[in-house]
Amino acid sequence: MALTKASHGVYSHKTMVAPKGQSAPAKAGSIPIRSTDDGIHLSNSILWFDSKVNGQLSFVSSAEIQMKVKVPQIITTEETLKILAAQKNAPHTHNALVCQYNRPFSIGRLRMELLPSGGILGGASLYVETEQGRLLYAPYLQTQKSGTVRQMQLKKAHTLILNAYHPDPNQALPNRKKERERFLEAVKSTLKNGQCPTILCRPAAIAQELTKILSDEGIPVAVHPKIYRINKVYEACGSPLGKYTPYSARSAHRNKPVIWPAPTKPGQFRARLPEGPVFLIEQTSGEAQLSPSMKRNVERFYFSNACDGVELREVIAAVGPKELYFTGPYAKRYVEEMKTLCPKVRPLFQNDQPTLF
Prior knowledge:
Strand content: 15-25%
Radius of gyration: 21 Å
Oligomer: single chain
Helix content: 10-25%
Number of strands: 21
């Protein structure tokens, strides 16, 4: 799928046209960045990316962070703050610089802008103009439309930082449209047989997409209380999801599929799963860890809110960087496969230590 320019000089799924009406680019050079075990730091500045405890100022890219942010000040979207609060994971800081997409702002000599990343409500990439050049930090991009959030946007940049999330940079994930059709067919078939599936998935982003997919087909669902709270944030922010009710063990939901948070570790379920077959929604192969003792029929589907390696190549071509960095568990593998895509391709290891992959 081709990436194309939208308004504000940003890029989505159309044609590549040079941005107009922007300030002249800074003189291109090597932008000094370093990775630590707690986020990435733009050297010689106060700006960190997805740091939870380091530094004075951190950009929080989405509400999928796994722990509370404790830095003195953060940059993020209002939607991200609301989802974090719904997950009872709100930042400890009350000093948040809440920004809207496509509204440039400055801190010191840094000129910044948030761009929608396309995977989760409020998720953002951070575009930064520095004295050494333009940088785009885009850890979680989704090129495909989900129907619940704003579509991904990009900007041209000298330096691009991406996350190597999926294990194989050469393997494309299943087509999202076909996977949606396969998922719907499986749900309808199960209901027709007098059973209701329990759908295990990420509580943020994917759970809301599945709620809307089922509701659009006239299939009301029951959702885990954690997912219910996040659903309400989506709707309050202008993303209607359709008909759903909160799941309660005291109430009968035998006529409704149930959407439940997937475990990240074996045996992590804190409450007994509803009866019936299990549909496991994975972002990448082997992500969810189900207990070997689970004696249920488990069918797997793939809905990711992060680009696979094939899609990232399109992103790189659209951004046109001179420096390309990969972070994440498969950084070294992605560097090897994509080292010809721009003049400088490097991994960013935590504390400059290579990963085991």
